[in-house]
Amino acid sequence: MKALNTERSRFMISGIIMIILGIIALRHTVISSLVSIVMLGIILTAGGIVEIVRSFHSQTATKTFYRFALGLLYAGAGLFMLAKPGINAMSLTLVLSALLIASGIVRIVDSIMHKTDYKIWRIINGIISIIIGIMIWMQWPYSGLWFIGLVIGIELMVTGFTSLAIALIA
């Protein structure tokens, strides 16, 4: 019983922390976007350095070359992210906008072509994806400054509320 109460407390505390972080991210979407791009740049750069170091321990020249080249690509991408976080946030947002539009179209076409009981829900989902993608695209490049932070904030809050729900159910 004590273990269950401890686990419940952990879920509640982590849920509350995630909700607070989500609120902060939503209040400061531009900063959240830029910080996430900088973090991605750090991760890519570190991964690139690790891969370059690993390349010198490879058994064959081919593996050494591939690992070294991959490490350079990762590190280069990471350094580019760190050098221009604003531009990269805008670029990534534009790519995500295109992805939303394309995935919405694919969902609608797939739903029309295949008979299922839940066809209408997939069509609605596709329409919503297209609308969101177009809205982001129409506000671009400005949406690039806040969109990633908005998504991160929403994700943190949903995760926090999920943890709270699990704690209350347990």
Describe this structure in words.
This protein has 170 residues and is mostly helical. It is built from 6 helices and no strands.
Summarize the structure.
The protein has 170 residues and is mainly alpha-helical.
- The count of β-strands is 0
Principal-axis shape equals: extended
The domain tally reads 1
Report the β-strand fraction as a percent range. Answer: under 5%
Q: Which radius of gyration do the C-alpha atoms yield?
A: 21 Å
Indicate the percent of residues in helices.
over 70%
How would you sum up the major sheet?
none
Helical stretch tally:
6
Helices and strands, in N-to-C order?
HHHHHH
Summarize model confidence as the mean pLDDT. Answer: 89
Helix and strand content put the structural class at mainly alpha
**Contiguous uncertain segments of 5+ residues:** none
Q: Distance between termini?
A: 11 Å
What features would you highlight for this structure?
single chain; 170 residues; mainly alpha; 89% helix; 0% strand
Could you outline the blueprint of secondary structure elements for this entry?
Layout: H1 2-27, H2 29-55, H3 61-83, H4 85-113, H5 119-138, H6 143-169
Helix pairs in contact: 1-6, 2-3, 2-4, 2-6, 4-5, 4-6
